[in-house]
């Protein structure tokens, strides 16, 4: 009878340990999910703030979005100050695009957050001529930008 009572006590303890283990597992899974979605929400907010900053920069320094001045960047006729501002603006833009590209699980749904094609099209001269800067981006992102540039060439050629 003593062995039987001991068996019942042990079985009850095992049940409690199983319940505790399941509870701990569920709690951990919920904590991980909350942390993931909280972090994702924070990243989205950060990207949104950087998009607003990009608009503010373009309003403060309108030459960085002026097509005639952009084309003069590559031929060296832009002043040093404007050239530096434009270079920094392009770095900011392409860093933003890369972050949006990663946030959107690469190419999927990127246009829901940022119309990256427009920025890539407008600043492709800088991208194409700045190999030392471009190499700082991941290969996947460089392939993405190149695919956008290829699509732009096809559209511009009328095919």
Describe this protein's structure.
The protein has 159 residues and is mainly α. The protein folds into two domains: 1-43; 61-157, no CATH class. Helix content is 81%, strand content 0%. It is built from seven helices and no strands. Helix 1 runs antiparallel to helix 3. The longest helix is centred in the first third of the chain and has 59 residues, at 2-60. The termini are far apart.
- How big is the Rg? 27 Å
Alpha carbon gap, first and last residue: 89 Å
Number of strands: 0
SSE succession? HHHHHHH
Number of domains: 2
Overall helicity: over 70%
Question: How many alpha or pi helices?
Answer: 7
Shape descriptor reads elongated
Strand content: under 5%
The profile of the biggest β sheet is:
none
What is the overall pLDDT average? Answer: 83
Low-confidence stretches: none
**Classification by helices and strands:** mainly alpha
Summarize the structure.
This protein is an all-alpha fold. It is 81% helix and 0% strand. The radius of gyration is 27 Å and the shape is elongated.
List the helices and strands and how they pair.
Blueprint: H1 2-60, H2 67-75, H3 80-103, H4 116-122, H5 124-129, H6 131-134, H7 139-157
Helix pairs in contact: 1-3
Keyword list:
single chain; 159 residues; mainly alpha; 2 domains; 7 helices; 81% helix
